[in-house]
Structure formats: structure tokens, C-alpha cells
Amino acid sequence: MRAVNIADLKNNLSRYLNEVRRGGEVVVKDRNHPIARIVPLAAQEDDEADLMELVAAGSVKLPRSDDPLPKSFWSAPLPKASVDLINLLREDRDA
To answer: Cβ contacts of residue 5 below 8 Å, gap of 6+?
Structure first.
């Protein structure tokens, strides 16, 4: 595990990210106080296992290939805004 201050991390970000890609970890320090850790992402199998746990818990529903979006979804007109957004932006910028 390597520790690095923010300024060094900013100046050599690619180098430290390559280190993480190879499985290493980088501890980020602000004025020599650890504030964060950059670690490699978990393997894709772990992500799929997490998704299956959510499906089993009923929190997520997987899409069915035989259940496409209706054609009306793609051709429906966008709703009109009930306010004039351009004028609201101008008023906000002028304030």
C-alpha cells in the first residue's frame, strides 16, 4: 500500500491509477492525514452476485427480453414545461 499527498496524486494520477489496476492500493493524504483510499474494483462476478442478491430480496427486477418497451414509448411527445425556463434562467443570472 502506497501513501501519497493530494498534490503528488494530482501530478502523477496516471501512474497511481496504473498501480491500482495492477492490484495495489493508494492511500490519499491531505497534509499528511489519511483521508481516502483508492482500491481496485471487485471482480465482475462479485457485481453479478450482488445483483442476484438484490433480485432475491425483491429490490430489483431483471428485464425480460420478450418484454420490450412499447413503440408508443419512443414516439410519445415530450411534455411541455408549465413555465418559461429561458426567462427563469435569465432572471436567476441577473439576480
So the answer is: 28, 29, 30, 31, 32
Give the CATH number, domain containing residue 63: 3.40.1620.10
pLDDT in tens, 58-86: 999 888 777 677 778 778 787 777 778 88
Dihedral sign (CA 66, 70, 75, 80): negative
Burial class (CB in 10 A: 0-12, 13-18, 19+), 27: middle
**Can you tell me the mean pLDDT for 85-90?**
86
Domain range for 30 is: 1-68
Residue 45's pLDDT band, with cuts at 50, 70 and 90, is: low
DSSP 95: -
Rama region for 32: left / alpha / beta (φ>0; ψ in -120 to 50; rest): left
Domains of the chain: total: 1
Q: Is residue 76 part of a domain?
A: no
